[in-house]
Write a structure and sequence with these properties.
single chain, about 650 residues, alpha+beta, Dna Ligase, domain 1, 4 domains, 7-stranded mixed sheet, 17 helices, about 20% strand
């Protein structure tokens, strides 16, 4: 968070003086216009205890009152650093004395101190003013979730003794701040804080610096939504049900449909777990120590309402009627028929496939192919081929597998339990892998295999007609495989990709959205597999976590080698970076797979990535007929840094907001 940029630098007090009975010296030089300061008429004196709520209060007894007084939005005038944060402004008159008066401003109605102080007759010569801001994602000094910070005017410079008095006055007027508040020095006070750091370290006055914004995060809302379901602690080897809200002590690589997710390890918005939550419109959050919370434990095994929002999360017991209504309301009422164009009957090079061919090859293939057309100014694209849906459809027909599909769908419609459906799907996948490709198909695949350089491993990637769509990513539903030279005919691996169309997680997702399974089709994207890559990553052409920083940013997750960002190894945490649209970058967190605070992308690679993301965002906005400045449009891109250090773009699809 970059503080002070564009913020109005309010004049300090006119002079330094000791107020009778006051233990703190009020400091500053500057101008005043009489007792009220800043000139202008001064209103009749109103004591804080006599304030109407529309103006403010003398004390804040609870969190609910703080919320009612607070403002959170873009209308912060010159206080730019407060934009979109929840804050309440305050004035302390004669701090630290037996005449101390504390005014909590109704910040919904009053954004600026000076007019307010004139209106209620506050003597500016003996007052300090600032704001208390709530940061729900960070740990408080007492270790609980939710940190309150207090700061003053950018040029104000107060001593440690003064800050301690102001802190104590604020806690006295808002008792819930005890153990949860920290001093936030702005530009004018940073130097003095550094000089007196030893005093702070030896005291109970906690300090929050700008560089602490991304540290000690104990709550992170990944997908803000609400749902109903049965709360359970996820156990190893046991798959959760669609009507369950799960607490995960570690981050699973794959997760079937659930009603909501809480993880006790830090997630990123680009993991398949979160992409699935976004797609399914279910709440998902990182909550440190959730399973140890007494309130959470009391709800395990019960039907609950779960809500995730920017300022925190909530769990309460729910009724069966609420749960039934929720699931009934979310499913489409009509069968959905995915587009499936079987007119293209041969494998085509990517350079001959266009964006409009997605209904024959799948969006994954068509979008990568389209990027060959508008030619990125930076980064490289893999060259290869697209296998159309026609091949999958013909394979299923020639092996008589549509009968097995019909039997499966009859079992499902008849109310078969999930274990029966899993067994049927497993059998169907086995039949597909062991099937025989028609001779014409085998010959076509063999020719394509021969076109790759000798010894090259061919990456065979799923590309269906029900994923990578605007509003539905399908992330993590299907499987991709690599075909190595010693593994024989390419058809073996292509059939493995075909079989993944019938994964349980994919079947379950199509079933929920009433997608016609018989029209689902699998295409395959072929290109050389990267070997010995230095890093891999995912980027979104928007700051999808809405970190409070100045300016526009791309959001990046990067991990070393082949440790995938979307499907990380257990206890693997990627590097998170905010890459400025025009220049600069900020590391939110470092990868735990490299040396401490070592970045995975160098300046040259970051600049290449910036250029690529800009082009991809602009051109796909045009292709999807969206305004490229639309805040609800962004592209998600998968990239690699090759063994040679080159940036390679693997995939681009619409981000699901």
């Amino acid at each position: 968070m970059l503080h002070g940029m564009g913020r109005h630098l309010i004049w300090p007090l006119a002079m330094a003086l000791l107020v009778q009975g006051t233990s703190v010296s009020l400091q500053g030089q500057g101008r005043g216009g009489g007792p009220g300061g800043f000139g202008g008429p001064i209103g009749e004196r109103v004591e804080p205890e006599d304030l109407e709520f529309e103006r403010g209060v003398a004390s804040i007894p609870d969190r609910e009152t703080f919320e009612k007084l607070s403002y959170q939005g873009p209308d912060v005038a010159r206080d730019g650093y407060l934009a979109e944060l929840e804050y309440v402004k305050f004035i302390i008159e004669r701090p630290g004395s037996d005449q101390t008066k504390l005014y909590w401003m109704n910040t919904q109605n009053y954004r600026a101190h000076p007019p307010y102080m004139r209106e209620v007759g506050i003597d500016m010569r003996v007052s300090v003013r600032g704001a208390v801001t709530y940061l729900p994602r960070l740990a408080a000094p007492d270790g609980s979730a939710g940190l309150y910070i207090f700061d003053f005017q950018p040029r104000d410079s107060y001593s440690f003794e003064e800050i301690k008095v102001y802190r104590d006055d604020l806690v006295a007027g808002m008792p819930l701040l005890k153990g949860k508040i920290a001093f936030h020095p702005l530009s004018g006070n940073v130097g003095r804080y550094r000089q007196e750091k030893a005093l702070y370290d030896a005291s109970d006055v906690s300090v929050h610096l700008d560089e602490d914004l991304f540290r000690n995060i104990v709550y992170l809302p990944l997908n803000e939504a609400e749902s109903f379901g049965r709360l359970r602690l996820m156990e190893e080897g046991v798959l959760p049900q669609p009507n369950e809200i799960v607490i995960c002590r570690s981050l699973p690589n794959q997760l079937p449909r659930v009603a909501g997710v809480i993880t006790e390890v830090r997630q990123t918005p680009l993991s398949h777990v979160n992409l699935r939550a976004v797609q399914d419109k279910v709440p998902n959050a990182y909550v440190a120590g959730a399973s140890e919370d007494a309130q959470v434990r009391s709800l395990l095994g019960k039907l609950v309402h779960y809500r995730v929002h920017s300022q925190g999360y909530s769990l309460r017991e729910a009724t069966k009627e609420e749960v039934d209504w929720y699931f009934q309301d979310r499913r489409p009422t009509e069968t959905q028929k995915p587009k499936r164009n079987l007119a293209v009957k041969k494998i085509l090079p990517l350079k001959e496939i266009r964006f409009g061919n997605a209904d024959s090859f799948g969006v994954k293939t068509a979008n990568l192919a389209e990027m060959h057309q508008f030619e990125l100014t930076a980064g490289v694209l893999p060259d290869g081929y697209g296998i159309p849906f026609y091949f999958y459809v013909q394979f299923m027909e020639s092996n008589g597998l549509n009968k097995a599909v019909d039997q499966l769908l009859q079992e499902s419609a008849g109310g078969a339990d999930s274990e029966t459906i899993r067994d049927q799907l497993k059998s169907l996948r086995s039949q597909i892998r062991q099937g025989t490709a028609p001779s014409w198909m085998s010959e076509a695949l063999g020719q394509i295999q021969q076109s790759f350089d000798e010894g090259v491993t061919i990456r065979c990637r799923s590309s269906t007609n029900n994923e990578d769509l605007p509003g539905f990513s399908g992330a993590g539903l299907y499987d991709s495989y690599s075909h190595r030279p010693q593994e024989g005919h390419l058809s073996k691996t292509v059939q493995q990709v075909f079989a993944s169309l019938w994964n349980y997680r994919a079947f379950e997702e199509r079933e929920f959205y009433r997608i016609d399974h018989r029209l689902a089709a699998m295409g395959v994207l072929l290109h050389p597999s990267y070997r010995g890559e230095q890093a891999n990553g995912v980027a979104v052409t928007a700051d999808v976590l809405e970190y409070q920083v100045t300016g526009g940013n791309y959001y990046l997750n990067t991990q070393v080698g082949e440790d995938m960002v979307t499907n990380p190894d257990e206890l693997s945490f990627p590097e998170e970076t905010l890459l400025g649209w025009e220049q600069g970058h900020q590391v939110v967190s470092y990868s735990n797979r490299v040396e401490a605070e070592k970045t995975l992308l160098n300046e040259s690679q970051l600049e290449e990535l910036r250029k690529s993301l800009t082009w991809i965002h602009y051109f796909f906005a045009r292709l999807y007929e969206r305004d490229y400045e639309d805040p609800q449009f962004a592209m998600e891109i998968e990239f690699k840094v090759t063994a040679e250090g080159n940036l390679a773009i693997k995939q681009a699809r619409p981000w699901v907001f």
